[in-house]
Amino acid sequence: MESALKPFRVLAYVVGVMLLVLCVGMVLRYGFDQAALSKIIAPIHGGLYMIYLVTVMNLGMKARWTWPYMLGVMLGGTVPFLSFYVERRVTQRVQTALTAAEA
């Protein structure tokens, strides 16, 4: 489970930052008619989000999460700033489970 936590944490942060950049790009695109940033960032964020989904599945299967919980974690990459909160909560949950397993 520990081996799956690190990629999840990294991707949660990367996807979160990319989503914030994408939001800036959307404001520039629709507010100021500057589409260049969103055209570059949108496909990058989409690809990284797909990788994020795979890491969530990997961690969720190893941690034996329920499907509703796993889907909630997956949705963390779709709302700005939510991925940072979800990452923190998941890390605490996994570390608590690892501590309990050692005892």
TrEMBL record:
One of its GO terms (cellular component) is plasma membrane. Pfam families: DUF3817. Keywords: Cell membrane, Membrane, Transmembrane, Transmembrane helix. It is a multi-pass membrane protein. Its main location: membrane. It is found in: Cell membrane. The chain crosses the membrane at residues 12-28, 40-61, 67-86. Residues 5-91 form the DUF3817 domain. PANTHER family: MEMBRANE PROTEIN, MEMBRANE PROTEIN-RELATED. NCBIfam families: integ_memb_HG. This is DUF3817 domain-containing protein. It comes from Nonomuraea diastatica.
